TrEMBL record:
Low complexity: bias regions: 635-645
GO biological process, one term: regulation of DNA-templated transcription
Name the UniProt record assigns to this protein: Protein arginine N-methyltransferase
Positions annotated to bind S-adenosyl-L-methionine: Y383, K392, Y393, E454, D481, M482
Species this protein is from: Cyphellophora attinorum
């Protein structure tokens, strides 16, 4: 099995397993290719003991206590005695530690009758304590009975409180609350011996529980309440029971964002194929495939599929997981575990991971502080990771080639002293954009005067080496901060100067300058000896973008170099970039920040993080089918914000990859040329041909603000202040389904170049229309990225967290207010989210909201 093959962990659950699980049973299960077994923690004997106690004492309790237990007395009126050997099949041995314990499904922790709830809590505690004692680490806890829970949610609160206590009983134990995917009365069954029917009428009221009920988000909301009461404990997860008919994608997506550690598949959800073999619908297959792409994929638990046949009684188990019989084979072969064989077969049919999934494998939902390449000099490995991007540099090369072509065809005068177009790569790093600029110039047959500037002295060493070894000394190098650079320069006698300085033979290479009058002896000598002629740049190329576009201070850096640009025709690549935002449910990130990170960083919830978002749900969506965007329709497909942003949002744009393996967010696992070869289109096709996913609703992702370069409002000299780069934006997001917002996902789109000339149609761009588009655009916005810059992986999204999750009811509205702020030293963001409910046609009422979060203390230093 290769390392990209998905592995399913599949367990067997027998609701009425009467006998203790022995090592032989475990052996049989493993031989059949099951990975795990469940086991009830207590026996039917214990159940009978509790029922008889209840039936003996409940009438007495009823006559003496008609009012609420707890408000009238603190003592349990019915006490369940401690467990005896007859009460549990478990012993602390090797077998037990490999089992998933199951809490008795007949209790009712959420019962409105305080006596029933109290007995249920006692049973829960006895079972959890004994399971923990025996060494069980995973316990399934049947979720609250939705049918009998009180309308005011008090039963859920009671349930959550009991689980909170339960978590303290086994410090190494994880609890899985077992919930149906949706709240549907058809799924609510009551078995003989359940405690819930014993609830007395004075507590259950007259409610008619037989009314049919279907609430798609009902069980999710119940889970969310329990999880919140348990303070997002990392030892509390959820097991979701799949129904026979799967509900619409929005509720599936909601569960996808939750810590679903087990998916349970009852035999009743399988259909039979022509030969009588159990099979799942395409929708079920797609759901399972989607969940299997999680960093921690859930286990699958087959329930009610018959007992495990013994391997010692003549039935031969399947030797090989790939051995799901063909129909022909099936005719002469009795598969002892057909449901399991089906799932193993499904496992083998899982589509391979996409390029981005491979690239980010293991780093999904991993929080990283964004880089500050302006103030911190990057390591070579970090640059190396950028350079693996299969899309970004191609797109830059296209943009440069088009800009040069347009310059020539529009007959614009160039700034070079010798009449050549002057191109400068500012923030050149190790030089990939320099290489691309040379390639682009060659491809369009235009000779350019190329400059490359970098302030990182270590990267500068490599630039010099590349100039000697790769670029044939065609590049003039400058070591400087771009904001203090005085621009391209030519001296009368560079040959003599070079000879004088290096004491070497004159060469064709251009001299290199730091650009700093204070530190550069080369510069001093040059300027002292002869007359320097500074000239303008025609095309400035930079890649200073962060995950939110402007968060690595691209606007500030480019403003500082703009005065060197040809004032009439000068072009900046990129031309503009727009930040985008969307409210999301991200319970894992919320728990990681507010439970763990705040321990060491008290302001952890006020820092934006770079993160490969995976276990999230976009709360604002539209169900409308949507035409896949092309570079030219992106602006028109995204709603515009109510914004005080000076520049209107432009069409699209791109960010930097976090590096999970190293402290710097950018460094990543290497991506080989072979990986490059498989495009997302290919893997998408493969996926589509194997398992088709249901159509997902379209997330509402709104433009927050835009920066344009060159900035026409700037004066010809470098700006003295930075106030023009502040931004403020108020965005309205419809929230169709109730949910908890844990923060905002930030993306960006970047127009590298927008051509005014039309592109000739070639074979290649006819096949890939974006190649013929006048705009060359990078995008991390999930709505536009697949069309604009598929497979680009230089940037993961930015996550703006919340200290307290904000609740949104069905059909409400989120109002997000964002600020980009600055002082003389730094730039930072502030954000706030408010929940509103629509009343009537125009009215609305504020339900609550977050405080203003500010990253000022962690601002990006200028
Ligand atoms: C994101 S890296 C891009 C490097 C390279 N162009 C690439 O695409 O791989 C940004 C580079 O800009 C440099 N840089 C950032 N701010 C700068 C400034 N004000 N002046 C000069 N270089 C700067 C950083 O040192 C870094 O090498």
């Amino acid at each position: 099995m290769d390392d990209t093959q998905t592995t399913f962990f599949i367990g067997h659950h027998e609701p009425k397993r009467l006998l203790p699980v022995t090592s032989n049973n475990l052996h049989d299960a493993h031989a059949l290719n099951y990975d795990m077994l469940t086991c009830p923690i207590t026996t039917p004997y214990f159940h009978t003991r509790v029922l008889s106690k209840l039936s003996t004492h409940l009438p007495n309790v009823s006559s003496t206590s008609s009012i609420d237990l707890g408000s009238s007395t603190n003592a349990s009126p019915i006490v369940i005695e401690p467990l005896t050997p007859l009460d549990s099949p478990l012993s602390p041995d090797e077998v037990t530690s490999q089992l998933i314990g199951v809490i008795s499904p007949w209790i009712d922790l959420a019962s409105p009758d305080p006596v029933i709830a109290d007995i249920s809590i006692q049973v829960l505690k006895l079972e959890l304590a004994y399971a923990a004692f025996c060494g069980i680490t995973y316990v399934l806890v049947p979720g609250p009975r939705m049918r009998t829970s009180a309308d005011d949610g008090s039963g859920l609160v009671q349930f959550g409180r009991a689980i909170l206590d339960g978590l303290t009983l086994g410090p190494w134990m994880s609890l899985y609350i077992w919930m149906p995917l949706i709240d549907h009365s058809d799924d609510d069954t009551e078995d003989i011996g359940d405690l819930s029917p014993f609830a007395r009428q004075q507590f259950t009221g007259q409610a008619d529980n037989s009314t049919r009920r279907l609430d798609l988000f009902g069980t999710w909301e119940a889970w969310s309440t329990i999880r919140s009461i348990c303070k997002y404990s990392s030892r509390l997860s959820v097991a979701v029971a799949l129904p026979k008919l799967l509900p619409p994608v929005p509720i599936q997506s909601r569960w996808y964002s939750e810590p679903v550690r087990i998916l349970t598949l009852d035999s009743s959800i399988f259909s039979k194929n022509g030969k009588g073999y159990p099979v799942l619908t395409k929708a079920h297959q797609a759901l399972i495939s989607r969940f299997m792409r999680h960093k921690n994929p859930p286990w699958l638990l087959l329930s009610n599929v018959g007992s495990i046949p013994s391997t010692t009684n003549g039935v031969s188990p399947l030797a090989d997981s790939t051995a799901y019989p063909t129909l022909a084979e099936a005719s002469g072969y009795k598969d002892p575990v057909p449901h399991l064989s089906y799932l193993r077969n499904l496992q083998n049919r899982q589509p391979p991971p996409s390029l981005i999934e491979k690239f980010g494998a293991g780093y999904q939902d991993y929080l990283q502080a964004p880089l500050q390449p302006l103030t911190v000099n990057l390591e070579s490995i970090t640059y190396e990771v950028f350079e693996k991007d299969p899309v970004k540099y191609d797109w830059y090369e296209r943009a440069i080639a088009r800009a040069l072509t347009d310059w020539g065809t529009q007959r614009k005068p160039a700034s070079g002293i010798d009449g050549r177009i002057v191109v400068a790569v500012v923030g050149a790093g190790r030089g990939p954009l320099v290489t691309r600029a040379l390639k682009a110039a060659e491809s369009v047959g235009i000779d350019v005067d190329l400059w490359a500037l970098e302030k990182n002295p270590n990267a500068y060493v490599l630039l010099q080496r590349h100039n000697d070894t790769i670029w044939n000394r065609r590049v003039s190098l400058v070591k400087s901060d771009m904001r203090t650079w005085r621009g391209p320069v030519r001296y009368d006698d560079t040959k003599r100067l070079s000879q004088m300085l290096t004491n070497a033979e004159p060469s064709n290479t251009n001299p290199t300058y730091t650009g700093s009058v204070d530190t550069d002896s080369t510069y001093l000598l040059a300027t002292a000896a002869r007359k320097a002629t500074h000239y303008k740049i025609d095309i400035i190329i930079s890649e200073l973008l962060g995950s939110f576009g402007d968060n690595e201070l691209s606007p500030e850096c480019l403003d500082g170099v703009q005065h060197l640009l040809n004032p009439i025709h000068g072009i900046s690549i990129p031309t503009s970039y727009t930040a985008y935002i969307s409210p999301i449910a991200a319970p894992k990130l919320y728990a990681d920040i507010n439970n763990s990170m705040v321990q060491t960083t008290p302001r952890a919830a006020e820092i934006p993080y770079v993160v490969m978002l995976n276990a999230i749900d976009h709360l604002s969506t539209s169900a409308a089918s949507r035409v896949p965007p092309t570079p030219d329709n992106v602006s028109s497909t995204t709603p515009h914000p109510t914004s005080s942003t000076p520049d209107p949002p432009q069409s699209p744009l791109s960010a930097h990859p976090p590096n999970p393996a190293l402290p710097q967010p950018y460094s990543k696992a290497h991506i080989t040329g072979k990986r490059r070869a498989e495009s997302s289109t290919e893997s998408a096709l493969k996926r589509a041909s194997s398992i088709s996913a249901p159509p997902a609703p379209v997330p509402t992702i709104l433009p927050t603000w835009t920066f344009q370069h060159p900035n026409s409002s700037l004066s010809p000299s470098p700006p003295a202040a930075n106030t023009h780069n502040t931004r403020h934006s108020v965005l309205h997001f419809p929230i169709p389904n109730r949910g908890l917002c844990h923060g905002l996902a930030g993306y960006f789109e970047c127009v590298l170049y927008h051509s005014t000339a039309s592109m000739p149609t070639t074979k290649k761009n006819a096949a890939e229309p974006y190649l013929a588009s006048p705009s060359v655009v990078l995008s991390t916005n999930p709505n536009t990225m697949p069309a604009l810059s598929p497979d680009m992986m230089s940037w993961f999204p930015l996550f703006f967290p919340l200290k307290q999750a904000v609740w949104f009811p069905d059909d409400s509205e989120a109002v997000v207010t964002m600020w980009r702020k600055e002082d003389a030293r730094k730039v930072w963001y502030e954000w706030k989210i408010d929940a509103f409910m629509k009343i009537g046609k125009k009215g609305r009422v504020r339900l609550g909201g977050s405080e203003i979060h500010s990253s000022e203390e962690e601002g990006c230093l200028m």
